[in-house]
What does this fold into?
Amino acid sequence: MNLAFLMTKLVRGLLTLLLAVTFVFIVLRASGDPAQMMLADDASADAIAAFRERWGLDRSIFHQYLTYLAAILQGDFGTSFRDGRPALTVIAERLPATLELGVSALLITLALGIPAGIIAALKHGSWVDQATMSFTILGHSIPNFFLGILLILLFSITLRWLPSSGTGSFWHLLMPAITLGTAASATVARFTRSSMLNVLHQPFMRTAKAKGIPHRRRVIGHALPNAAIPVVTVVGMRIGGLIGGAVTIETVFAWPGVGLLLVNAVNQRDLAIVQGIVLLIALTMVTVNLIVDLTYGWLDPRVELHTKRKAKA
Amino acid sequence: MSRHDAVTPMMLARRRPGWLTRLWKTRPPLVIGLCVGWLVLIVVAALGAELLAPYGYAQQNLLNRLQPPAVLGGTAEYWLGTDNLGRDVLSRVIYAMRTSILIALMSTLIGATVGTLLGIVAAHFRGWVDDLIMLLVDFQASIPFLIVALAVLAFFGNNFILLVVLIGLFGWDGYARIARGLVLSTSSQGYAFAIRTLGVHPAKVYWRHVVPNMLGIIMVQVTLNFPEIILLETSLSFLGLGVQPPGTSLGLLLGEGRNYLATAWWIGVPAGVVIFLTTLAISLLGDWLRDKLDPNLQGKR
It folds into this structure.
């Protein structure tokens, strides 16, 4: 792996994170007196004074920014004013549920989207292709919270097969994961299909055919690896969609994850929790993007040579 | 070859039929007709809500609470039934369309204008301005916007203007990226160079020559962005963090209906269907437009 390539990506990721922290800082300072914003309404004068001292609120804005940055780097996101515990602890409690849902949804996305896209491309123009394309357009257009509600109506209320909310068993996980995974799989199927179609018409595929390599080996050995690159990118991008989507889906199914925590925290204006979650999501996204970029470079060595900004689809 | 190059600017100067004319000459398939029909219906309903809605959106009739739709044993007075306060679901959906479509239109306008301008600025000045704007583009693209929107609403509290501006900022990065790319490619073309050597001010070159040439592609981007904006607004409202009661929005209706799924599913479902059909219609229309407007793509997809 090319070191310059790695460094460029790393610096870019860190810059994005810094931007995220700065963004939260600016929003926090622009929205009013942080002491009043971050502390509960009934906070004592002592507590307010301690808070001002802690964050250097009487110092210059630049000093405040540095203090803030230092605290964030140490994992100090402030305390939730609902129960006074550190925000990070409260958020960490909710992570397993969100991860469980997110990973299941991602598995559904991959298991559904990639084969569908490949088959549609191989049977280009057939009814399978048409059906896949219709599915991707439908899946892309339906709001995931509406899909969730329709599933609840069908499977929980009409058929009484699945629980409509909560957590605890495989059956609880089923509907939220399907809802979250379907929309993403539509996008993935679409990209896989167009990427495969693109590769199938390349000259090297014709050469392979002329050399007498059997169809199956041409597809698996030649077409798939070359078609994988855009797919990896879109899967990485969809992970962001899963996190964003988790907010609505966790609300629909009362799934006790980070998304539901965020919605409740926004409603109660528990800002320490909100800023913690936003920064955590920024960190996740930057990490995912970094992994995608590195995979990209690994899949296609040519990419490393052009570390310049690549046009995103 | 060099002789042909010399001819190019003059050939470009001759008027090629504009993208609207080209569009007009191709006969759209039935599905596209249906999509356009649905969108016209939505806009008419949104504009003429007062005339079309049989009742006011907040008009309660407590004697007629939770009436099912007319075809499912309800009364003909309430086609789509009534909600928990006896409000007419059809009227509420019509008024909600107005809010959601209005927000989506204003936000799209904001996003497209801001994004296109920043894209042009980035391509015009290059250097650190370009780097800074593209860093912001990457930043915007790298964090789920719903999360950012939720955070801003949490910090600033909710009001309608903030909501519209916030939603408007969603998707600007797409426009910026496209505008930047187009400016970079047009400025290397003969005609832009020719006009500039005549001493025309850059702003005028962009406004009179570059932007009109971009409109087709920007329109395609609008069809990609618009459904996402509707989804963002309805998601926020669904979560109770977008449009606030007593206002209505399609997402808010669906959110309210969620509490009555077991007893009165018709409170929320119609709003969901409207959102779905609208985003579907725009997506299909956008696909078709893209095929028609971008000759490079034809036969490739």
